[in-house]
Amino acid sequence: MVRQIGILLFSGVALWACTEEKSPILPVEEPAVVTPGPVPDFDARMQQLSQDYFALRPEIATYFGVPDKKAGAGVSSQLGEYSSAGEKRRRAGLKSILDELAGIDRASLTARQKISLQLVEIEAGNAYAPATLVDYGSVLGEYGVWFVPWVVSHLTGPHIEIPAILEDKMAIGTRADAVAYLSRLNRYAGVLDEVIEKMHHDRDLGVVPPDFSIDKAIANLAVNVDMPAAENSLVVRFGEKLTDSGIADADEFMEQAVALVDEQVYPASRRLIEALTALRPLATHEPGVGRLPNGEAFYQAMITHMTDTTLAAEEIHAVGLVEVKRIHAEMDQLLNTIGYTEGTVGARMSEMLQDPEYLYANTDEGKAQLMADMAADLALADAKLPQWFGKLPEQEVAIRAVPPHREQATSGAFYDSPSLDGSRPGTFWISLADTAVLPSYSLQTLTYHEANPGHHLQTVLSMDPSLPILNTIFYSNAAGEGWGLYAEYLASEMGLYENDPVDDLGRLQQELHRAVRLVVDTGMHALGWSREQAIEYSVATEGIHLDEATAEVERYAVWPGQALGYKLGMLKILELRKRAQQQLGDGFDIRTFHDRVLEDGALPLNLMEAKIDAWIAEQL
Hints:
Elements: E1 9-10, E2 13-14, H1 40-56, H2 58-63, H3 68-71, H4 84-102, H5 111-128, E3 138-142, E4 146-148, H6 158-169, H7 175-204, H8 211-225, H9 233-245, H10 250-279, H11 295-307, H12 313-337, H13 345-353, H14 364-384, E5 398-401, E6 413-416, E7 427-430, H15 440-450, H16 455-462, H17 469-473, H18 477-493, H19 501-526, H20 531-542, H21 546-558, H22 565-584, H23 590-598, H24 605-619
Parallel strand pairs: 5-7
Antiparallel strand pairs: 1-2, 3-4, 6-7
């Protein structure tokens, strides 16, 4: 059974996990009526629009493993434009795609085609909306979808994205692939110069990243130029790929790569460091975007972009506070059962964090044990998946540590989709920079969120070759991250924490973490919270390590609104599940419900609700 959650009324908005009232989400068309068969012209038009998109963001074709024959001729050797003029063209290009989508005749589409079209329209529209309000920042920024206010930060920007794509995502199986890699490496220096120009453009509008983000961006860049070019990961990984593929004349390719890094990439990186250093005196310590031009309206647009809702920041903040209180009550009971009885929940969790019993040594051996434990947790989940899902992913997930040279430019743990061409598996990445922030009781839940039954299962099932690739690219942040958090909850129902109160505490702490995000993100971006206030609240409320809280808060500062999607998405999925259980009674099948939620991709919450309501009606 779904946990019963008390009802909160705040400014007329119900905490929607507990009520049958409709959530304050965006309107959606009526559920589609099934038509006789697929419309070939629709597939062709969506394919063309995907190529229009990849012309704006060539790197993302590589991220998803889309070959040139589908992405567009020569895409695999190209990088996007990052100047202010390039940003204008990208915004105009996205608007053109939206206009084309609006012009598609719906009358002859099948039900699934209508859902597909609506998904792309809603999410692409939400991604474009912030660009109608502000001239600064980047549309189609992080992951090729998210709007980001800072073209360069310690977590966002092509100086982070492009090396990661070249090193981890770009497959090299032929000489043509090697030439494409060098072409991109040659272009990368120009991209960094374009970013400097765009950064200056935004500076003139009064838009400068927070000082702490600039400091970390400079430090990250400095590490990557403080070594011989031949030892740079852009060169080392290229060489490994050449060797693995047995490509002839590999030495000549390597010589060119070393020269490009030494003579072009390093000088451009140093120019970016100099530009950031010059910008630093203009930076403030304020983390929120509310201080930016039209910042209040911009943050509201980011809320819609990242949550598919029209909730105001104050309403989300209130939901977060109620969820914190509820989860604290559950954690208090478990803490009492294992002997932690004195102090606040946060204080007791902080005490647990200091217990050597739950910590891994910050050594190679300790990190190897940590990775082995996560693999064992994943095996437990995989064995039970058939009882909860009708359709399961055919691909296994890889668990890998973030390379040391990129640890400071990542945020904890994350999942990368498998490539469509089969050259790369879905990968759960975890940063092992400091094992002190990764107590053993947190890892089981983290594994279920990022791998199975979380993001890996969700992503692989949505990568149906019959669906347009734009369905995968323009995913709903709230549905995607909401599913990941729901998967953590589901793991408890699956019995994966049975007779294990300590790891179940870890699960609840992770859910608490997502509730805290509702409070802290809105606190910084709408209610005037400082970075330090947000960090102190996170540590005191969750009992997490100071370093983890700092990294998290600084993440929210540069990805405004993104952290809101987890809890709001989970609450919507739980609401729809409760509705289906109540209306279908004995006819409710949890496996079918999960399949319906996942089969069309990470649907915007409004579209997900319309689809599930239509499915319920069909069963009655």
